[in-house]
Amino acid sequence: MDEFTLIRDYFSTPDFVRKDVIIGVGDDAAITQVPQGQYLATTTDTLLEGVHFLRQASADAIAHKAIAVNLSDLAAMGAEPAWINLSLSLPEVDNQWLELFSQKVQELTKYFSIQLIGGDTVKGKLAVTITAQGFVPPESVLTRVGAKPGDWLFVTGTLGDAAAGLDCLQNKLKLTDKSAQEYLVARHSFPTPRVLAGTTLRRLANACIDVSDGLMQDLQHILKGSNVGALLHLDKLPISKELGSSIPELQQALTYACTGGDDYELLFTIAEEHRVSMESAMASYNLPVTCIGQITGVSGKIDLRLNDQPFSFVSLEDRGYQHF
Amino acid sequence: MDEFTLIRDYFSTPDFVRKDVIIGVGDDAAITQVPQGQYLATTTDTLLEGVHFLRQASADAIAHKAIAVNLSDLAAMGAEPAWINLSLSLPEVDNQWLELFSQKVQELTKYFSIQLIGGDTVKGKLAVTITAQGFVPPESVLTRVGAKPGDWLFVTGTLGDAAAGLDCLQNKLKLTDKSAQEYLVARHSFPTPRVLAGTTLRRLANACIDVSDGLMQDLQHILKGSNVGALLHLDKLPISKELGSSIPELQQALTYACTGGDDYELLFTIAEEHRVSMESAMASYNLPVTCIGQITGVSGKIDLRLNDQPFSFVSLEDRGYQHF
What we know:
Two copies of one chain form a homodimer.
Chain A: H1 3-11, E1 21-23, E2 30-32, E3 39-48, H2 59-76, E4 80-90, H3 95-111, E5 115-123, E6 127-136, E7 152-156, H4 161-169, H5 178-189, H6 195-200, E8 205-211, H7 215-226, E9 229-233, H8 241-246, H9 250-259, E10 265-270, H10 272-284, E11 289-296, E12 302-306, E13 309-310
Parallel strand pairs in A: 4-5, 9-12
Antiparallel strand pairs in A: 1-2, 3-6, 4-6, 7-10, 7-11, 8-10, 9-11, 12-13
């Protein structure tokens, strides 16, 4: 089977078709139309076997994660996703694998009202590169550089679940509560990009990033980008009941929440005047958000507190996912 | 060295900065602005070591080819390139390699007035994925589906050089003329995307594709897409003096020209009424184009002629680059 048949069979008839896609899969390039007056947001992420997903990861989990991490990046800019390009490197043509992978792509593109507009298939070690594109109004772009002293520091959802789930999969963490373990593993394997939260934060948040490499590391990106510091209340960190009840030792739970990667929650800063509007908007969508601290003027410094007392982990600030 | 430092060091200060890039490398996604009234063209291509380039390929040749193949896809749609995203998979951080790679990226982005707006770096087997974006006016999009019986079949530049160059590199072809060999190897390692030819063909060509998998195979894409056939004059195929003088046996030279991949020339069909305007425009830019045949109404059929006599290679029609 050649590349063309492969792509044609699995990806050429999208379940979800957008009117702004003039030419999708099948020509030399896709042709699309960005709405007048909107900016284009573009992001690319590559997932490699053994680095971003385990060797035993299922095809649908890989497809899910590849799409989720890219939509999460768009969400962190306040952008609404529209189109994705897929580059797939496969060691062999495995129809069962491709069927499962493409079913998940179809399911998610439909769910998020986005369209697969093109791609490439090559023979090599299993790797998935997705480029996602979306729109954001010019005055609503969320960046890492707008945080201001006094801003409240918020995060969506819960932290640390994905890292604990990965440890369960790798037998580094053994839980007696099987349903809690299943929950944590699902948070690792099928992360939820906070797409609606991202567009909701337009014009409300001053700075935003997605938590992909761990809270401490991603918070540092905001602090460095915005030339500010932060007060972080460890006792306020949102920890799921599944993680909290499984890990009775506080420091271990906090380590997951502070340094665990792959949660894909949004971390954002917001001025006092917009806090209430943001909280009611999020509540009306049933999107949980938690205030975990406040931005300070002390550039680059994270001031950790536990029950209002200064607290320190041994070199916690330096931890987080390192790509090399 | 972590991913962030790596990207920051080599790719964060582009030599060429475009006004339509609002946010480039460094945030969760790039933010750009498509000109009002223009369509967006997007294409993705992955290059893998051992598949798309030889293990011994230099970093600058890899960078060149990765950019060229993507700009070639945009050119085949009539699109003007604007921005590229780079996803780089590297087995290790090799500063000398990265220096050479990034210098070539800088050189080409400057040459083509495009900007690197984002990317991703992962640890893995050497692989380069580029997503290129550009613009094309709605009424000027070139596709594979518009060829009409009677259209002249044209190709830019010369055919077969890149495949012969690859054979030289792999010692499958040994030439006594070293300067011819150097030329052919350069055509393989540093292909020229026909960017200006692509925009020149807007509103003139009826169908267009880039010759990446070999003339016969890429011509078939036009024929199938447009539901037409073609008369192909083998004696008219543009063969460089370097290829022609090195390969005295006609059938071998024709095999390179008909089935050799990686030339990245544009193959297009044009109505009689636009032929003269196209030829003068191309001549004014010093872009060589050659009429190699004509579109017929016999769907899917390539009618090969040599000096106006029917001619056939053994299953030549089926040959060309197969990705799996």
